[in-house]
Design goal:
The chain has eleven helices and eleven strands. The two termini are 37 Å apart. It is an alpha+beta fold. The chain has a seven-stranded mixed β-sheet, with helices on both faces. The chain has a four-stranded mixed β-sheet with strand order 1-4-2-3.
Length: 343
């Protein structure tokens, strides 16, 4: 089997696009030199690209069906963080061999996510390389129904900080070598992004870890003035959004504070962390109820004062994140930047 047979058999499909917004009359998808599409409505376009490398973003032991789902899902999580509707994607495959049974399972997983989120495969490229490790590149395209996209740079003093779902399972599964569906088949929170787009002040998807990704929101929102604010995280609320699997796997081995600090480092979550005004609390809780998705108010944006010691001990102590116990279980704890970094 060569590259073109692989594309024809596993990635080319006939029929109408899965997204009705793509005009069928002008649509050219997989199999040409480039893709052609036109939207039936004049919406703003959102574009994101992610690369996934074996041994870095996924284990060589992952089954190809789950990998096919993950390759697309992590990109859709970026669209979710922008409050965008999925539209289409391109796929780059870097493979060391063409294995028909592996490719069949991979493409089935890929197209299951594609159909669920109405995100059309528009094209891509396939190469053979000599490395033992496979890699993938996806560029996902979305659109905004309206004029406002969610951004990282809109957080305001006094805003609440919210997080979706639960935290801690991916890092625990990796450390303890446990099976985790969340780790290998993440679910992008596309519907949540669409629901909060009109009132959330900032948003990010949790790919590198909450302690790292929340800092991105702070620094983007308070550029040049980040030394005047901090985010206070509530220990007891963080406990509420710990993964049940994490709690079970570490039962009797770690105390609650250790578990929360570990969850703050956990990457590959693909939950949404967002800020919103205090008066949006009722609306957010109603959204969570309607989506059957836990949404936890984990903290707030505060102005720095003499109440806390903001003297920098070293360059890891930037004073941006503090963990507070509402029941006075412990004094305020500085949360260091942690999570995954490539370089």
């Amino acid at each position: 089997m060569d590259e073109f047979q692989c594309i024809e058999k596993f990635f080319k499909k006939n029929g109408f696009p899965v997204n009705s917004l793509l005009s069928n009359r002008f649509f050219v998808g997989v199999g040409d030199d480039a893709s052609v599409f036109r939207l039936d409505k004049n919406f703003p376009i959102v574009v994101t690209t992610d690369m996934l490398a074996e041994g870095v973003h996924f284990s060589s032991e992952i089954d190809p069906f789950s990998l096919g789902k993950k390759v697309l899902a992590v990109n859709l999580s970026d669209l979710a963080a922008m409050g965008a509707c999925p539209l289409g994607f391109t796929l780059g495959l870097g493979l060391n061999t063409l294995n028909p049974s592996w490719l069949l399972a991979f493409s089935r997983g890929l197209f299951e996510v594609s159909r669920k989120y109405k995100c059309e495969l528009l094209g891509g490229d396939t190469i053979k390389h000599k490395s033992n490790y496979n890699f993938f590149s996806v560029t996902a395209i979305g659109y905004i129904e309206g004029e406002r996209a969610l951004r990282r740079n809109g957080m305001k003093l006094g805003d609440d900080i919210w997080v979706s779902g639960d935290l801690g399972e991916p890092i625990t599964a990796l450390q303890l070598q446990k099976e985790s569906k969340k780790l290998i088949q993440p679910l992008p929170k596309v519907d949540l992004g669409l629901k909060i787009r009109e009132f959330a002040t900032s948003s990010i998807d949790l790919s590198d870890g909450l302690s790292s990704d929340l800092r991105h929101l702070i620094l983007a929102s308070f550029s040049g003035n980040s030394d005047k604010i901090f985010v206070e995280l509530y220990f007891e609320e963080m406990l509420k959004c710990l993964s049940q699997n994490m709690l079970n796997w570490f039962a009797g081995k770690k105390d609650n504070l250790d578990l929360v600090m570990l969850a703050l480092q956990s990457g590959d979550e693909y939950e949404l962390c967002f800020s919103a005004p205090v008066d949006a609390r009722t609306k957010i809780r109603e959204i969570g109820k309607n989506l059957n998705l836990p949404l936890t108010l984990i903290g707030s944006v505060r102005k720095r004062s003499s109440e806390k010691n903001f003297n920098f001990v070293n360059n890891r102590n930037d004073g941006l994140l503090w963990l507070k116990s509402l029941t006075n279980t412990f004094d305020n704890i500085f949360v260091e930047k942690s999570g995954y970094v490539h370089f």
